[in-house]
């Protein structure tokens, strides 16, 4: 009797913990924009999810340069501002009546940006209007951070389309260099030891440390793999370039 009950409890625990690693941003939980009003989605004009971003001023969104890039025949061109929308105040991107969709008046990509794994993967979108949502200030890295997004919940799952978040450990630069050949200490940060990570569709989105914006989701090999941390643009490095 006792043994049987124990077996059932163990089975339930195994099931629940197994489900949580297979589920989420990857490995995360649902989040609400009401709690983090500065997190925004970047979409096409017809509402397809491109990336995430963060409101750093009423009319400025920090995102990844690769989110504002189109691969052309001859190279990687800046995506025209009129092809982008910023969606704020909408936890479920399919709830088109909620929140605000803002047009983009100007796209600034880091002038050195070449390719996502080469770094300088940061862009600032200037909105056509100011948004009435709380903004987030830039900050430094710490022991861990929270990454938010509407993207895939596993490498081969479709985007969640509802906001999710997960806490990820921030790794020492030496460990990032060892695991990611393109890693640039100081200008990037890497986070995650498997199970928890950002994934496709989360790019450009915020990594928050102590309530401040420390990183931008940039790239990864697969998602949440044991030896493949997610790589982020380290915003503290770009503070003077960005000017806020
Ligand atoms: N580059 C991907 C995107 O465009 C996201 C990369 C993040 N991947 C990761 N495993 N942390 O959405």
Automatic annotation (TrEMBL):
Keywords: Disulfide bond, Hydrolase, Protease, Serine protease, Signal. InterPro entries: Peptidase_S1, Peptidase_S1_PA, Peptidase_S1_PA_chymotrypsin, Peptidase_S1A, Trypsin_dom, TRYPSIN_HIS, TRYPSIN_SER. Gene3D superfamilies: Trypsin-like serine proteases. Residues 25-244 form the Peptidase S1 domain. The keyword Chloroplast does not apply. It comes from the Bacteria. Residues 1-22 form the signal peptide. One of its GO terms (molecular function) is peptidase activity. The keyword Magnesium does not apply. GO terms for biological process: proteolysis. Belongs to the peptidase S1 family. This is Serine protease.
């Amino acid at each position: 009797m006792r043994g049987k009950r124990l077996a059932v409890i163990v089975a339930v625990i195994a099931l629940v913990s197994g489900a949580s690693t297979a589920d989420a941003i990857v490995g995360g939980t649902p989040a609400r924009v009401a709690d983090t009003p500065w997190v925004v989605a970047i979409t096409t004009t017809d509402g397809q999810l491109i990336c995430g971003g963060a409101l750093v001023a009423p009319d400025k969104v920090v995102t990844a340069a690769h989110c504002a890039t189109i691969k052309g025949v001859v190279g990687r061109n800046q995506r025209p501002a009129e092809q982008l929308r910023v969606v704020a105040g909408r936890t479920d991107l399919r709830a088109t009546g909620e929140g605000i969709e803002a047009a983009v008046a100007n796209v600034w990509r880091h002038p050195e940006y070449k390719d996502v794994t080469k770094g300088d993967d940061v862009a600032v979108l200037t909105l056509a209007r100011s948004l009435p949502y709380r903004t987030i200030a830039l900050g430094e890295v710490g022991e861990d951070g929270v990454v938010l997004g509407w993207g895939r919940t596993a490498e081969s799952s479709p985007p969640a389309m509802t906001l999710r978040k997960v806490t990820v450990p921030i790794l020492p630069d030496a460990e990032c260099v060892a695991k990611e050949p393109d890693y640039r200490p100081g200008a990037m940060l890497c986070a995650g030891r498997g199970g928890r990570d950002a994934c496709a569709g989360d790019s450009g989105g915020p990594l928050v440390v102590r309530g401040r914006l420390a990183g931008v989701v940039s790239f990864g090999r697969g998602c949440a793999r044991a030896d493949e941390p997610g790589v982020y643009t380290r915003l503290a490095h770009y503070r003077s370039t960005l000017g806020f």
